[in-house]
Amino acid sequence: MTSGSSPDTLFSLKIFCSGIGGIGISAYASLQKLAGHDVFGTDRSSSSLLDDLQSQGIRTSLIQDGSSVREGIDLFVYSEAIPPDAPERIKAQSLGIPQKSYPEALGEFMKGYKVIAVCGTHGKSSTTAMAARMLMLNGYDPTVVVGTKMKELEGRNWRKGRSDYLVLEACEYRRSFLHYAPSIVLFTNCDGDHFDYYESIEDYHSAFLQFFRGMDKDGTIVCHGLSMEDVSIAKKSGRNIVDADQYPLISLQTPGYHMQQNAQLVLGLADVLNIPQQETREAVQGYAGSWRRMEKKGVVNDVTIIDDYAHHPTEIRATLQAMRSAYPGQRIVTVFQPHTHDRTKKLYQEFLTCFRDTDLLIIPDIYVARNDIETDTVSVKTLAEDIARSSNIQVIDGISMDNTEHLLLTNILRKGDVLLCMGAGTVTNLAAKMASSGR
């Protein structure tokens, strides 16, 4: 009943998506609309993703009090950000409407596809984007679901292909990826994250092993052989393993050693599919980055403005090293908005030393993504002081996003600077505002 993987669907479902503006569920909504279903939904705030959904004829609302959930809906799909006690989920339950989480619903949609999944703590979106580009340019015509907007997808985060291949970014949060059964997995790394859900690093690793054991019996995992921990997890699954580190670190348009490592995984994928390495390298070398991955928003008054999604200490360190390499000799001013008090508290020590490659750091506030998991708070003032002491850099408590913008424009930025706006929350809006401030 819930499958919608074919555009010649014999019957149309009414599918309601709660949190429809999320980067994953919005792609699901688009694909189901294209499959012939009546798709509509709500979110808490407007965004470019909502604008795009509306341009496809998908109705959206910013009212999430339950009034949009009515009888006649065949399937209620909710993002992981929507808690069980949300008004819309309670209303759907009272009406007897079947409910599925976004990963569960996507898993249903994918049945019948040959799934290539990208998983890991970091680098999923960029690796998925590189893999999608490589397959598209080599005639595979895949369906794509990715957690970023791609230039190759006309600025969208999804694509409906005509082949039976589907390339997917598979998130481990709350073991979401266990709803997928891929044939091939690109495994970026397994550092550990989402400790609001996972009890320990061992628990985190166990989720990946579960995921790998859910693959096709003759499935293949492409991973970095130099990471003994990653290889150990992969080997326990009993699946085939391809060592990505046997492939060269090729030059890319996007800076950073971590990006070259992502590209190695795609070179490994090409070998699994018997795609010539020369064609693969050309495709990957043409990858010019994607939305919020060291994305250059513009140059205003001789200040280069970059928007980046990094929110984990390992990602922050890698991004800043890449920025230092890409902009040698220039002052880097970083505005970082921590993503949830819970993550900040549990990775506190790691945050203290990951900013050493920036010249100046401003922390405007801490983004609260899920009120249901925020059991404690972290003081921005104390965090700023502790980072300054541990990393020997200047750190400013920005007090708020508006005040941070004021400080940047009046006291901080000077010609030749690079402004890096970093985090998974609303700091992206600051990057957009700063990029348009000189126009």
What does this 3D model show about the protein?
The structure is a single chain. By secondary structure, the chain is of the alpha/beta class. The protein folds into 3 domains: 14-102, 3-Layer(aba) Sandwich (Rossmann fold), CATH 3.40.50.720; 110-285, UDP-N-acetylmuramoyl-L-alanine:D-glutamate ligase, CATH 3.40.1190; 295-436, Protein-Tyrosine Phosphatase, Chain A (Alpha-Beta Complex), CATH 3.90.190. It is 35% helix and 19% strand. The protein is built from 15 helices and 18 strands. It has helices at residues 25-34, 48-55, 87-94, 102-109, 124-137, 201-213, 228-236, 257-272, 277-285, 313-326, 341-346, 348-351, 380-391, 401-412, 427-436; strands spanning 14-18, 38-42, 59-61, 75-78, 99-101, 114-119, 143-150, 156-159, 165-169, 184-187, 220-223, 240-243, 295-300, 303-308, 332-336, 360-363, 394-397, 418-422. Strands 8-7-9-6-10-11-12 form a 7-stranded mixed β-sheet, sandwiched between helices. Strand 16 (360-363), helix 13 (380-391) and strand 17 form a beta-alpha-beta unit. Helix 5 (124-137) packs across helix 9 and helix 8 packs antiparallel against helix 9 (277-285). It is globular. The chain starts with 13 loop residues before the first strand and ends with a helix. The relative contact order is 0.09. Mean pLDDT is 93; it is low at 1-8.
